[in-house]
Structure formats: structure tokens, C-alpha cells
Amino acid sequence: MPTAYLGEFEQQLLLVILRLGAGAYGVEIARELEQQTGRRVSRGALYATLDRLERKGLLRWKLAKGTPARRELPRRGYAVTPGGVAALRSSRETLNRLWRGVEHLLKGSPS
Fold it and tell me: What is the spatial distance between Cα 88 and Cα 16, in angstroms, rounded to a whole number?
């Protein structure tokens, strides 16, 4: 089966979920994404993309116990699947191939 294509935002979300490990919940994912990329994300875009990644089989979620701050409401904990890891590796390899031979063109001041 071919590896799934990842858009930039999908790639960033999967990497953030890997980085957070067991702490990968919606609010924490959004916070880490903003901190690491400077990119703000709407809740709608975040959850729509998480759902799409789940449909692609690249992540999974399970319900976790809620916190007092959430009035004990359960929350979804996200984890990257082996297929998601494979898609990230494939994406990184593709980008590395594309970068080879052009680094020197991007050095120096912009024209």
C-alpha cells in the first residue's frame, strides 16, 4: 500500500502529536503547534484535520479521563499510528531529495 501524502499542516500536526506523546490532547496540540511554528490554528481547522488524519489511518484517539478544569468531561488523547510514522518518514525523504542541490541557491540575502 502506498504511503499517504501529507500536506504541510497534516505533517506539523503529526509531528506535534509525536512530540507530546501521552499528553497529546486538542488544547495541548494547538498550544504546542503555536509555540513551535508561530502558527495559530482555529479549533475547526484543528479538529477537521485530526479527523481527516484518523480517516487516513495516520492517527488514532481514545477517550481519557477528564480533568477538574473540564468538569471531568472525557477528552480525546491522540497518538500517531505506524502508518502515520511511515507517512512522516516518506515525506521527510521526499523533502530531503528536493532540497539536495538547491541549498546554495537559498543562501545569502534575498534579491
Answer: 12
Return the SS3 of 75: strand
User: Phi/psi zone of residue 72: left (φ > 0), alpha (ψ -120 to 50 degrees), beta?
Assistant: left
d(CA 111, CA 102): 16
Alpha-carbon torsion (67, 69, 74, 79), positive or negative: negative
pLDDT for 83-109, tens place per residue? 999 999 999 999 999 988 898 888 876
CA-CA-CA-CA dihedral for 23, 25, 26, 32, to nearest 10? 10
DSSP secondary structure code for residue 64 in this structure: E
Kindly state the percentage of the chain with pLDDT values over 70. 89
* Cell numbers found for residue 42: 482555529
pTM, rounded to two decimals = 0.85
The CA-based dihedral angle spanning residues 63, 68, 69, 71, taken in that order and rounded to the nearest 10 degrees: 70
